[in-house]
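re: that chain from earlier
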Amino acid sequence: MIAKIIIKRRFVKDNTPQIISLLNKMRSIAMDQTGYISGETLMQKDFPENMAVIATWQRMEDWMVWKASEERKTYEAMLEIYQTRPTQYEEYHLGTSFLKEP
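^ sequence. v structure.
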């Protein structure tokens, strides 16, 4: 079942080039991972230091393998240097087909 992952981060101001570079490198590596479908990066209109990444994976298990990988943890640690709070993750299954009718 398709998984949608929303990753929210709040960064300190004035480091956008370094942050975007790290996010792009992380996405480039993710693209080679089993199950990766797509990703997009969003910046909040009035508060550009607030960013969200929406990633789509073929299965939640594929995302969990990538999330736990040492390579991803390395990039996550580099991003944390610029963050004002911990990364927030929201993990969803696409659609409602997994719900059973009462």
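The chain has a mean pLDDT of 93.
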